[in-house]
Amino acid sequence: MSVHGVDFAYRQHGPDDGVPLILLNHLSAVLDNWDPRVVDGLAARRRVITYDNRGVGASGGSTPDTIEAMARDTVLFIRALGYDRVDLLGLSMGGFVAQVVAAQEPDLVRKMILAGTGPAGGPGIDKVTSLTIKDTLKAVATRRDPKQFLFFTATESGRRAAHAFLDRLKERTDDRDKAISLSSFRAQLKAIHRWGVQAPADLSRIHQPTLVANGESDRMVPSVNTLDLAARLPQGELEPLYPDAGHGGIFQYHDAFVPRALEFLEA
């Protein structure tokens, strides 16, 4: 779909009726990085739309290096689809984008789910770049996927969950998305760092009902940020932190997260 002359890659799942749920992705992710158990589970009862923001995967244009610019592109994409009311599920960096969209376009966003994410200026977010590079190098040296280190705990249970998740990401064999480019990855890292060093966010501007979820041991966006969001958002609601889980908690606990998310969205 063309948005102001830029082609956005996206997929639609589930029924045509009702308020659509827009999924906003994490650092370096493309369409194929969403856990199919989460997408298919949500799409059993909701219209679910996944997309590559500007410059990511198969989408055209150049990737912005600020969260605010990513949010503007997200709004343009949603409007181009013809929607004037949506729900948002933002994971990690996607959760940063979701917060900006909800604050700046209050009439557009009905409800929001924030997973593995935190507010601008939240503790530890400014260290995402160094942690990501460190664990990526570790993954290359050990011939593993960086998400095994970044998204899951190092316990036996965490390792099993990581392998199961990575296997699920391979289930789609046709119409696979393009991998993110190095230039886009660098732009996203810059945007995340800027978000992390900003002055603490004023969350009182976000009035939409918001479900907040994460693992209890998130190394990328420390789990204290999840607790902070739930406490400071006027209509924040905390899903108890998933035990022995990290940044990919909603993937590791998809069997608990999906019904809880649907219950929240349908309430």
Describe the protein in words.
The chain is α/β, with parallel strands linked by helices. It has helices spanning 36-43, 67-80, 93-104, 128-142, 146-150, 156-168, 182-197, 224-232, 249-252, 254-266; strands at 2-3, 6-7, 10-13, 21-24, 48-51, 86-91, 109-115, 210-213, 236-238. Strands 3-5-4-6-7-8-9 form a seven-stranded mixed beta sheet, with helices on both faces. Helix 8 (224-232) links the parallel strand 8 and strand 9 (236-238).
What is this structure's SSE topology?
Elements: E1 2-3, E2 6-7, E3 10-13, E4 21-24, H1 36-43, E5 48-51, H2 67-80, E6 86-91, H3 93-104, E7 109-115, H4 128-142, H5 146-150, H6 156-168, H7 182-197, E8 210-213, H8 224-232, E9 236-238, H9 249-252, H10 254-266
Parallel strand pairs: 4-5, 4-6, 6-7, 7-8, 8-9
Antiparallel strand pairs: 1-2, 3-5
Helix pairs in contact: 1-10, 2-3
Radius of gyration: 17 Å
Q: Could you give the count of β-strands?
A: 9
Give the terminus-to-terminus CA distance.
32 Å
Biggest sheet character: 7 strands, mixed
Question: In which order are the strands of the major sheet placed?
Answer: 3-5-4-6-7-8-9
Question: Percent of residues in beta strands?
Answer: 5-15%
Shape: globular
Category from helices, strands and their pairing: alpha/beta
Q: Count of helices? A: 10
Low-confidence stretches: none
- What are the secondary-structure elements, in order, as H or E? EEEEHEHEHEHHHHEHEHH
What's the average pLDDT? Answer: 97
> What is the share of helical residues?
40-55%
Oligomer: single chain
